[in-house]
Design a protein that fits this description.
Its main location: cytoplasm. Homodimer. Interacts with FtsZ. Keywords: Cell cycle, Cell division, Cytoplasm, Septation. By secondary structure, the chain is of the alpha+beta class. Helix content is 64%, strand content 15%. The protein contains two helices and two strands. The longest helix is centred in the C-terminal third of the chain and has 39 residues. 4% of the residues are buried.
Amino acid sequence: MNDTDGKNNNRVTVEIFGIRYPLKGVNDVESIKTAATMVDEKMRSLLKQNQYLPPDRIAMLTALDLADQLISLKKDYDEFWHILEEQKGTDRQK
């Protein structure tokens, strides 16, 4: 959601953990809403696990969890891409 080309037209208000955030971004509105829903659901899930955590701690743990998921997905993607490249090389040799 960063304005790299000056075409930052998509505006939406989302609610995360009971707070409404007006957002604008280059991503489509549905993508922004989906991301907000994912963050909200993860924060609420963490709150259920420990009701005594303050909201800032829940937000930090949510960010770490989502970052960990992203790292794992990137690793899987890189491994998959490597396998595909190896397969292409094998196919060319035949």
